[in-house]
């Protein structure tokens, strides 16, 4: 399936953000589409991918646990929703969810899967998570969707999302452990044959210092998950009282 270009809007991004976003759209709509569909389903996968699946499930449950249990009359942005598992879970709790992803093919899979019942609603959208036309939200969740961006671009994205978010922003990053950083430096964090955009490990202390300078936001909860080949760290930002 051909990649769907993100909608045009007035927000100016850095060249590196735009380049990474476009590479992600191409990658997940071509090279990785079948693998991602399998990874986010019950299909048999390799041992390595099974650890990634388990890690992602644990991370998704962690982030959902940081949201209110009753999400009725609550608007949520699932930024980088992929095939939509988190969107569906939030909608089952009553939320109105905007599930957005740069990969139009994954959005089509999400639309086809959508097996939820309840009071919530999901609006699937192919495009850029930073598009202001998506509207305003009580909560934003960006699970493993900012892990390909350098720290400056990640912070800029969080700041942009924060302008349209009333209560909390939940996001993940790849922690800069000695092993992950060595793999990043040698280009082996993903095999070259996968042609995937690199993960960008970020030092937690550096990231926290940058987050502390965001106007009106503070770090609340924090949690790291390591399952085999999956390592990701979640941070909850909340509005300062």
Automatic annotation (TrEMBL):
<dbReference type="Pfam" id="PF13847">
    <property type="entry name" value="Methyltransf_31"/>
</dbReference>
<protein>
    <recommendedName>
        <fullName>Magnesium protoporphyrin IX methyltransferase</fullName>
        <ecNumber>2.1.1.11</ecNumber>
    </recommendedName>
</protein>
<keyword id="KW-0949">S-adenosyl-L-methionine</keyword>
<dbReference type="GO" id="GO:0015995">
    <property type="term" value="P:chlorophyll biosynthetic process"/>
</dbReference>
<keyword id="KW-0489">Methyltransferase</keyword>
<feature type="domain" description="Magnesium-protoporphyrin IX methyltransferase C-terminal">
    <location>
        <begin position="142"/>
        <end position="239"/>
    </location>
</feature>
<dbReference type="InterPro" id="IPR010251">
    <property type="entry name" value="Mg_prot_MeTrfase"/>
</dbReference>
<dbReference type="InterPro" id="IPR010940">
    <property type="entry name" value="Mg_prot_MeTrfase_C"/>
</dbReference>
<dbReference type="GO" id="GO:0046406">
    <property type="term" value="F:magnesium protoporphyrin IX methyltransferase activity"/>
</dbReference>
<keyword id="KW-0808">Transferase</keyword>
<feature type="domain" description="Methyltransferase">
    <location>
        <begin position="74"/>
        <end position="133"/>
    </location>
</feature>
<dbReference type="InterPro" id="IPR025714">
    <property type="entry name" value="Methyltranfer_dom"/>
</dbReference>
<dbReference type="Pfam" id="PF07109">
    <property type="entry name" value="Mg-por_mtran_C"/>
</dbReference>
<dbReference type="GO" id="GO:0032259">
    <property type="term" value="P:methylation"/>
</dbReference>
<dbReference type="InterPro" id="IPR029063">
    <property type="entry name" value="SAM-dependent_MTases_sf"/>
</dbReference>
């Amino acid at each position: 399936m051909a990649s769907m270009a993100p909608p045009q809007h007035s927000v100016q991004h850095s060249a590196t953000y735009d380049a990474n976003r476009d590479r992600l759209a191409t990658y997940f709509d071509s090279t990785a589409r079948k693998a991602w569909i399998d990874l986010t389903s019950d299909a048999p996968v390799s041992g390595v991918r099974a650890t990634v699946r388990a890690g992602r499930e644990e991370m998704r449950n962690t982030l959902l646990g940081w949201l209110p249990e009753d999400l009725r009359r609550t608007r949520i942005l699932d930024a980088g929703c992929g095939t939509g598992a988190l969107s569906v879970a939030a909608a089952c709790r009553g939320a109105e969810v905007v599930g957005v992803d740069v990969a139009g093919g994954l959005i089509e899979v999400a639309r086809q899967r959508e097996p939820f019942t309840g009071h919530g609603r999901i609006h699937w959208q192919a495009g850029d998570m930073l598009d202001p036309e998506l509207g305003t939200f009580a909560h934003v969740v960006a699970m493993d969707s900012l892990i390909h961006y350098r720290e400056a671009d990640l912070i800029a994205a969080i700041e942009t999302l924060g302008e349209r978010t009333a209560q909390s922003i939940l996001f993940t990053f790849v922690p800069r452990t000695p092993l992950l950083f060595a793999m990043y430096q040698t280009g082996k964090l993903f095999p070259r044959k996968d042609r995937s955009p690199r993960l960008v490990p970020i030092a937690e202390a550096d990231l926290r210092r940058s987050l502390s300078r965001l106007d009106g936001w503070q770090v609340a909860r924090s949690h790291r998950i390591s399952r085999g080949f999956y390592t990701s760290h979640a941070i909850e930002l909340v509005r300062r009282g």
